[in-house]
Amino acid sequence: MTRPNVAVIGLGNMGGPMAANLVKAGVTVNGFDVVDAAKTKAAEAGVTVHDTAVDAAQASDVIITMLPNGGLVAQVLIDIIDAVGDNAKTFVDCSTISVGEAQSNAEFVGARGHRYLDAPVSGGVAGAAAGTLAFMVGGNEEDLESIRPLLDIMGRSITLCGPVGTGEAAKLCNNMILGVQQIAVAEGLVMGQRLGLTSQAFFDVVSNSTGSCWALTTNCPAPGVLGNAPADNDYTPGFATDLIVKDLNLAMDSVEATGTDAQLGRLAAQIYSQLQADGLGAKDCSVIFDELKDRN
Question: Catalytic site residues (predicted)?
């Protein structure tokens, strides 16, 4: 079966490796980003880089967006759809935005004769580079099946969660859990160190016990344990604190809208917001450990 040409709009820490993996699999990829360094790196990986998102989309059948916020996603969709007219496209938004924004995007795109899936991802930069992302998809099953071979290249897990918006719902639930777990792991490591445990001993026990989780086994916040985690590279993200603050705030909007009693989620949102206010927004979210260990 002939693979469709793909546009990737947003070639940063996540979109860049995703586009590179598509190229490696033989897919023709057209790309765009506002950052010159991201465009250069994508071009080196074999992506055909265009001057505008519209140009990249016009040369493609499937348009993947991986952008920082819902406002940018909506504007890019408007720009592209105004330009492509009736030439039907499939839009796959892998950004983390609100459920309502995803639903509004789908309504707008569908009214113009195009298809839309919300497909946020989990796995971080490492998962994007390795092609092992988990895709949480909201939308029509037939539309998903039409682009599943592309998602298979970029990920190891593809779950149809339900109608448009449920992919984002799953992502917000997941990242609220991640925020709580990353803090809990950091607190446990700090307490363990003060009780005489080395970080390695803590890791060896907990990673094989009931406290094991991604925030420890893949994103261990203590330097010198994994060797390739953000903590081992001065907390270069990974998953930046700025982004987890954004996602936790979106989750808190959903907590309010649904009347959910999410006490730990609220606390995680507060803790990470303070970390951001302290100037650590550009660091990986695991930097919470570095901040906690210096507290009395």
Answer: 171
